[in-house]
Design goal:
This protein is α/β, with parallel strands linked by helices. The chain is 41% helix and 15% strand. The protein folds into two domains: 1-48, no CATH class; 49-237, Rossmann fold. It contains ten helices and six strands, in the order αααβαααβααβαββαβ. The strands form two sheets. The chain has a four-stranded parallel β-sheet, with helices on both faces. Strand 5 (200-208), helix 10 (212-219) and strand 6 (228-237) form a beta-alpha-beta unit.
Amino acid sequence: MFYLSELLLGHMNVFKGILDLIFPVICLNCSNALVTHEAVICTFCAVKLPVTNYHTHPINSMSKALWGRVNIDFATAFLYFKKAGMTQELLHQLKYKGRKDIGINLGQRFGNQIKENYFIKTTDFLMPVPLHKTKTASRGYNQSEVICKGLSEVLDIPICNSLLRIADTQTQTKKRRFERWLNVSEKFSIDKPEYLEGKQILLVDDVFTTGATIEACCLAFDGIKDISIGVATLAIAAH
């Protein structure tokens, strides 16, 4: 039986090798073929990811953008987002091309970067920013929850889906800051808020631009006793 299993595994590896030669899995940034143990992007491009290292600087562009607007205890982003840059292509593939593996992979990379942070070590729940159910149905998944799955695998922190979007919103693209706020304000609620009393949560989203969505989410936590809120996004718009 052991010999048969080894033989089947060997044949599978050969078959996979042939498929890789015919249909190579390529790096989403440079289009070179990925080798064993590489995923989504090659090692060379991974080194070039525009990381922010915000987790090592409590006072950063994201935390400053939220000062005076919401009461948070931690804010970080993994990558800088620039038009026509690597981050934009990765997020486009994640959000619109069904590439959930990108969200999981980048979430894992993000988790490995921040796992020793003081706030992360005491976080009780990861909480994805929700999509409205109609948008989730059309897309097939919520990209923020996919990112959470990658984070959770590395950080060993459970995902909590208590945050609900209670109304659909128009796309945020090309809206000004005040227009974005009007578009998302009072659109979120908390299911069973009593379960979050005294807890520390990490709110997770894909991209931070003006902070309007994060602000609206945080307002939904008003009135919950002794809750501590952190924010983590996969990317932040570079200005």
